[in-house]
Amino acid sequence: MEVINALGRRKSAVARVYLSTGKGNITINDRPLEDYFKEETLRYIVCQPLNLTETLANFDIKVNLDGGGIKGQAEALRLAIARALCKVDVEAYRPVLKSNGFLTRDAREVERKKPGQPGARRRFQFSKR
């Protein structure tokens, strides 16, 4: 099998995934998964598509992660892995991944700060007199 690449985004995080047959090693920016994502919950988020399709031990994954925070990066990586699995076998993996919402890009972004107020929606305290 040739190397399959996919892209995942969340907020300002971008994950580029290179999927190839292997033993289940996940390398993120030349570091192992456990070293990059210290929290168990973030590692769980990353491995959700692989656990759902029961392919955790079948593929080696090399990832370039850039931008955003740690949670946004984990969710961007989840989307990228799900998209790469769809490229491997559409009939087998796509219905399962789609029904669990792993192929949907979360389009929510930070709302910009407006002039004349301290935040996006927050206003300065109103004084009548």
Mind explaining what this structure looks like?
There is one protein chain. By secondary structure, this protein is of the alpha+beta class. The protein has one domain (4-99): 2-Layer Sandwich (Ribosomal Protein S5, domain 2), CATH 3.30.230.10. The chain contains four helices and five strands; from the N terminus they run ββββααβαα. It has helices spanning 33-36, 40-52, 70-88, 90-99, and strands at residues 4-10, 13-21, 26-28, 31-32, 59-66. It has a five-stranded mixed β-sheet. Strand 1 (4-10) and strand 2 (13-21) form a beta hairpin. Helix 2 packs parallel to helix 3 (70-88) and helix 3 runs antiparallel to helix 4 (90-99). The N and C termini lie far apart (73 Å). The mean pLDDT is 94.
Structure at a glance:
The chain is of the alpha+beta class and 129 residues long. Helices cover 36% and strands 22% of the residues. It has one domain: Ribosomal Protein S5, domain 2 (2-Layer Sandwich), CATH 3.30.230.10.
